[in-house]
Structures are given as C-alpha cells and as structure tokens.
Amino acid sequence: MTHPTLLLLSGSLRKGSYNRMLLAQAAEAFGPANVIEGDLDLPLYNGDLEEAEGVPEKVKTLAAQIKDADAVVVGSPEYNKGITGVLKNGLDWISRVPGSAFKDKPTVVVSASAGRTGGETAQFMTLSCLTQHQARLIPGTAVLIAGAMNAFDEDGRLKDETSQKLLTARMEGLRAEVV
Description:
By secondary structure, this protein is an alpha/beta fold. 43% of the residues lie in helices and 17% in strands. The chain has a single domain (5-178), classed as 3-Layer(aba) Sandwich (Rossmann fold), CATH 3.40.50.360. The protein contains seven helices and eight strands, in the order E-H-E-H-H-E-E-E-H-E-H-E-E-H-H. Helix 1 (18-30) links the parallel strand 1 and strand 2 (34-37). Helix 1 (18-30) crosses helix 7 (161-178).
C-alpha cells in the first residue's frame, strides 16, 4: 500500500481552528496519503429523529469514510475541561450505524487548546469514547499543544520544533501500522 487513506476528524467546526491546523500538520507528517476530512457538522443526536427518519445520510457517509480509511487522526479540542459537543455528538451518531466503523481502525488522537494543558482532559475523554468504539488506539506520547493561539505561525504551522518532532513521531507510528 503506497498511498493509504488517512481520515482527519476535527472536533471543532471552525475553519481556522487550532485543531484543524494541527491535523493539517499531522497529515503532512504522515507522508504520502489520500487525505480526507470527515464532516462532524451533524444534527444533534435525537433518538426520536432516528426512529422517525433513520440515521441521517451525513452520518452514514461519515461512518463509511471511517470504515474505508486505513487510519484516522482525531483532533480533540478542549472546551470547559472536556470533549467538545461536536466530537461527542459525532461519536454518538456513528455508534448508531451498524457495523462498528471504528472497530480495529488504527487511530491517533491529538489536541491543541488555548489552555495550559493543551487539551489533556478532552484527549483522555476522547480516548475513552474511542475505546467503546473498539478503535485500535496507537500508543505513544500524547500530542498536546498548549497555548495554541501562540503555537502556530501565520501559515498555520507549528512554531515549536519539539512539538513538531513529537507529532512526526506519532504519525510515523501510525503510518507503520498501515503501510
């Protein structure tokens, strides 16, 4: 497999989010790949909606992208010391699609946050949620970018060489799982 498919999932919908910047750097560090960005801009999970209308097409598309990807990188921002509603909602919807999209899927979680811990609490919560989805979480040192508003240059690239090396090591480990 020379060009694996890498799916990026950002727990922030904002186009200029720090986690989107971090995911772009992760994709670059991963190396040659067919890179796809999953869309977590989904309706709020509602069992009544699901019963009346079924699982929305956008959710089915996202689950298929996860299933078809060779690897997944999740950008997990931290809001109010926890996982974002956007990311949790997406994971809840995905769990409603038959076939366990994340099962055995090589997955890495990275975080960038304005706070001083770089999204550590949200990252642990995201890892816990992904465990329930049976994702194959690739071990390694956590990528936690603190003070994210100062961590990226005007081109959206990490300024800190140590953070870039850590991210590169994580992506090399993920790539080794799929190539």
